[in-house]
Design a protein that fits this description.
- It is a single chain.
- The chain is mainly β.
- The protein contains two helices and 17 strands.
- The protein has helices at residues 37-47, 61-69, and strands at 2-5, 12-13, 16-17, 27-30, 56-59, 85-86, 89-90, 106-108, 111-115, 123-127, 132-136, 146-150, 157-161, 166-168, 184-186, 188-192, 199-202.
- The radius of gyration is 25 Å and the shape is extended.
- It starts with a strand and ends with a strand.
């Protein structure tokens, strides 16, 4: 297991040398192997500065399952039992004995941990969404999908991009097909303003 700064992999960021600016370096731990709460804590702490801490933890489904398994020894099962006889008679009928295991959602230090099929296999990313911004680009041919928004000061309608960088090709009729199809395009880039507030665990295998 090797913990390094992301500046060791990509030397510059936005034209700046990452080794010269601590805010441009994030913590990356390779070859994690078995996932433990201690290793998660180390990554979480690396991305935390004062009250600024990760707001979302993303993992591939397998790594999310390993995280879920860390909770199982602490699970309490609440079950509904069979009808019971009491001194006042028969208690109201209840469902047969059953239990529940597994989770749909998990939190770590108040931060949601989610599984994403598109996440890199064997990885867990500790993200601070406050420092991630999407910048859209207009499609060179189709522009952007816009909506009319009323300005509360002037009472005039203004056109605003529905989602920056989102465009619509319009309906087209394919050759040799009795149908119409259209395409949505999303042009742009997700920019991280402060890699220092992000961290990653990679190479999770169990």
């Amino acid at each position: 297991m090797i913990t390094k700064l992301d500046g060791d992999v990509v030397a510059t960021y936005g034209g700046l040398t990452r080794s010269s600016y601590g805010a441009l370096q994030s913590s990356v731990t390779d070859s994690v192997g078995a996932l433990t709460l201690a290793r998660m804590s180390t990554a979480f702490n690396a991305a935390q500065i004062g009250s600024e801490k990760p707001t979302l933890i993303v993992a591939d489904p397998a790594s999310w399952t390993y995280f879920e398994a860390l909770h199982q020894p602490n699970v309490r099962i609440t079950s509904d039992g069979y009808a019971q006889v009491t001194k006042g008679g028969m208690a109201q009928s209840r469902a047969a004995l059953k239990g529940e295991l597994g989770f749909d959602a998990l939190m770590y230090r108040g931060c949601p941990v989610v599984a994403d099929d598109k996440c890199t296999s064997g990885s867990m990313f500790f993200l601070n969404e406050k420092h991630l911004t999407w910048y859209g680009l207009k499609h060179p041919q189709h522009g952007e999908v816009t909506v009319n928004v009323k300005n509360i000061v002037t009472d005039a309608l203004e056109q605003k991009a529905l989602i920056p960088g989102l465009s619509w090709s319009g309906l087209k009729e394919p050759v040799n097909q009795d149908a119409e199809i259209g395409q949505f395009f999303l042009y742009g880039n997700l920019v991280c303003w402060s890699p220092r507030h992000q961290a990653a665990l990679k190479g999770i295998s169990s």
